[in-house]
Amino acid sequence: MKKTILVTGGAGFIGSNFVPYYLAKYPDHKLINLDAMTYAGNLDNLKECEGNANYEFIKGDICDRPLIEKIFAENNIQGVYHFAAESHVDNSITGPGAFIQTNVVGTFTLLDVARLAWKGNKTNRFLHVSTDEVYGTLGETGLFTEETPYAPNSPYSASKASSDMVVRSYFHTYGMNVVTTNCSNNYGPKQHNEKLIPTIIRKALAQQNIPIYGDGKNIRDWLYVLDHCKGIDLVFENGLSGETYNIGGRNERLNIDIAKKICALLDERMPRADKKSYSELITYVEDRLGHDRRYAIDATKLETKLGWKADENFESGIVKTVDWYLTKR
């Protein structure tokens, strides 16, 4: 059956990987991409979608209620994939207000307009994309599950935790058909330069110091972005209403090891003229405020209940990622 869906933040990193994936998988569906086009949005990442009769881009803010109401009134929106968010932790430390506005108020605005437009329709679905950072930090062992208590430690993670709770409340109060996904650190093509992996690649190729926070031993669980997109699609189609599903790559790595791996790949693919290793550019810098030590996702629920499995491990995914950035130099 033909559907019209709304994707928010489709010009961002994960969204711009999801949009072409969705259009290819569901060629009979219409996809409307709403993006405010902040510094993190890039329409060049969606050039492959231009000319597709089932794709429409609208520039706009998710906090703009009249605009959201107009989109719902003029289109038979049957599903929402909500990616739009302020997501860079460093920026949340220096300017937390934008994170509260977009991540909390924006999510509420979308939910409330959808609730009123759908008038109790239980077929239409709202999928909210969140993060593992809402759970706080882990010690040397253990994994985040869907039952892990929330303990956000940055303005970014606090804003996402707040938005998760708003989504939860719309299920329990209004019976709205919602699902939430909490993912581990994404990586892959189209990621903004401010993030860790693109920063390492960019700084290395410019032969500038590669900054690594603290002692470099902060641990993240890395998820290839297309595996994340497939997981999101699976949850939207088959997840139980009101449920949360964690999506993780089971690829824990120290930040310093990520840097060294990327440098080794660059040494092979684009050796420096002086024959030195790019790893000599790694520089330790003052740690970030409130920097969580370790994140790791237990994706057992998604794997066992819905049959999801990541196609990429870190070794294969990082090669694809580095090669993509080298083609874009």
What would you note in describing this structure?
By secondary structure, the protein is an alpha/beta fold. It has a domain at 4-187 and 222-251 and 296-310: 3-Layer(aba) Sandwich (Rossmann fold), CATH 3.40.50. It is built from 10 helices and 12 strands. The chain has helices at 13-25, 65-74, 89-94, 97-118, 155-174, 196-205, 225-238, 255-269, 300-306, 314-327; strands at 4-8, 30-35, 55-59, 77-82, 125-131, 178-183, 185-187, 210-213, 219-224, 244-247, 252-254, 282-285. A 7-stranded parallel beta sheet has the order 3-2-1-4-5-6-10, with helices on both faces. Strands 7-9-11 form a 3-stranded mixed beta sheet. A two-stranded parallel ribbon has the order 8-12. The longest helix has 22 residues, at 97-118. The model has no long low-confidence stretch (mean pLDDT 96).
Q: Could you estimate the helical fraction of the residues in percent?
A: 25-40%
Largest sheet strand order: 3-2-1-4-5-6-10
User: How many helices?
Assistant: 10
Low-confidence stretches: none
Q: How much strand?
A: 15-25%
CATH superfamily of the domain at 4-187 and 222-251 and 296-310: NAD(P)-binding Rossmann-like Domain
Enter the CATH topology name of the domain at 4-187 and 222-251 and 296-310. Answer: Rossmann fold
**CATH C-level class of the domain at 4-187 and 222-251 and 296-310:** Alpha Beta
Named at the architecture level, the CATH assignment of the domain at 4-187 and 222-251 and 296-310 is 3-Layer(aba) Sandwich
Distance between the termini: 42 Å
Rounded mean pLDDT score: 96
What's the total number of strands? 12
